[in-house]
Specification:
By secondary structure, the protein is an alpha+beta fold. About 35% of the residues lie in helices and about 25% in strands.
Length: about 350
Amino acid sequence: MDDNASNGEDDHNEENSSDGGGDDDGGGDGDGGNGDETSAAESDGEQQQFDKSLAASHSYMGAGLVTVSGRSVLEAGWRGRVPVAAHTGAVFPGETVPMLLPNPHDAVMLNRAIQKDKLFGLLCPDETGSMVSGYGVLCEVFEAGVIAAAPGVGPQTLSLKARANHRFRLVDMPKHALPMHVYARMRFAEVRVLPEVQPGEPLRRARLAGLDSLRRARTPLDRRLRSMDAALTPWPLFVYDIFDYHRMRDLITNYFKSFMFERLPEEPVSLSFWVASNLALSARDRLALFMVDDALLRLHMELRFIERKSVLCCSSCVAEIARREHILAMSSEGVHSNYTNPAYVQAGTCTT
């Protein structure tokens, strides 16, 4: 009885399981197909294009920042006393600099500067990264917010966003180089704004004014006219082509097309700073570009760096990290951006 009952139950279970399996398989095919289509539709609906403006807005600074009105217009040779602090690298004019100052001394000093002319300076390290180079950039605050304030004392913590505007050099440079940690906290220093030389067309003085109506940039006829102009000078045409702005701009535009940047600054000075900021270079090369006053010479040096096609290596162990063609843009400002953290550590990052 037990054996027969068990066999009967086994046969019955096998029949039910086989029938159920058939129903499951049939239902599974239908439901599975619909499920795949539904999941694919949901995945397509969930896919969103990455907004590159988020990184440029530095929204992680919080919503308490208030726009600071008024702007300061400075000319080459301007001298003044402004609060300065050390930075981890060279910051070029045009870059956005977010800062979080948890130190009450720095917050009070910079808050006073915001109420006065909104200017402060960031010092560039030398090629070793440990000593003060004597060069820096003036930044102008355009958004600021006091996170914590004590009654009768002033702000205890200050957050702000500033834009680098002018290169400067320290007026009173010591005979011996100072380590960067001397300027770890804000301190006043006398600075002088450096000039931004923008030479014009080198063949303008030699060319015939009567042929100006025929000149069109980057055309065969313009090339022939430039050859005629160069024949009146001691130098051949290729010498003038080396520092031809239109030629250099075309080469730079083609290089940055791979980074999905098609609209670059038009002015030579602004373009030279933008390229210097968005090239992955060593501290030595960045400082060399920062010290140059001539915009065309700076562009020429940047083209030489582009032609090298070097690799990105770790500064400590010299291990290869990535190649320059692996760089990609995650911000609307470029491949390089400045960021800060609650510990007042500022760093420039390059996405690869």
